[in-house]
Amino acid sequence: MRPSDRTPEQLRAVTLETGVNRYAEGSCLVSFGHTKVLVTASVEENVPGWMRGKGAGWVTAEYGMLPRATHTRGRREAAAGKQTGRTQEIQRLIGRSLRAVVDLKALGERQVLIDCDVIQADGGTRTASITGAWVAMATALNYLRAEGVMKVDPILDQVAAVSCGIFADTPVLDLDYEEDSNAEADGNFVLTGSGTIVEIQATGEKRGFSRPEFDRLFQLAELGCNDLFALQRAAVAAAAAR
How buried is 189 (Cβ within 10 angstroms: 0-12 exposed, 13-18 middle, 19+ buried)? Predict the structure, then answer.
């Protein structure tokens, strides 16, 4: 049995609450167990300078952790004057994941800026951010279409992410911090609703892992993401009904 008393193929309790920020075009408070991330989607009627005149838009993301998101207080990166390599890597991953399911031409010359602020971290902050970011982006673009700003939905597919790893020699889904910090191997899987792969990050932390073990991790990721896709659809539908 896992430390959280979950079965190997069981997600933590996941919630996707929309409309949590009154000012952003789209927002989502995503919880994977004790991991909580506030995601906002802001739409600006401009694009980065290098994209001007190309008739296409852009989707980008920023990621950060509040000082007491973890067991001990962390220093704000703004106070240090620079972002860590981990932060830069995660926010680039979030941006890539969202752009993979957006028709940038249909978006027009505007950009969607995603802000992911980790309120509380218990493992899987990047996967929670990606899953909640899609909801925030979808609600923002639905709002623009309802207001007549856009006529075509530029979102081509859903995208969600989940962690999987080998804990106590057992492949498990959705690692919390206790499992993640003691896993023999772990990975982050970013998948689309149509079943394609956007990105897989997998590492042997304490030992290498076999092809059968990887295949089981991927199978678990597919099962987990299918549940996340259903939760995403329900969250966006609920937001549209308000």
Answer: buried
- What pTM does this model have? 0.96
Regions of the chain with pLDDT less than 70: none
126 is in an annotated binding site: yes
86 assigned to a ligand binding site: yes
Q: In degrees to the nearest 10, what's the CA dihedral of 86, 87, 91, 92?
A: -50
Instruction: Identify whether 159 is part of a domain.
Output: yes
The answer to whether the annotation marks 211 as part of a ligand binding site is no
Q: What is the pLDDT of residue 230?
A: 98
Give the closest residue to 124 by CA, choosing from 195, 203, 73, 187. 187
Contacts of 227 (CB under 8 A, 6+ apart): 11, 14
Cα 56 from Cα 52, distance rounded (Å): 8
The domain total for the chain is 1
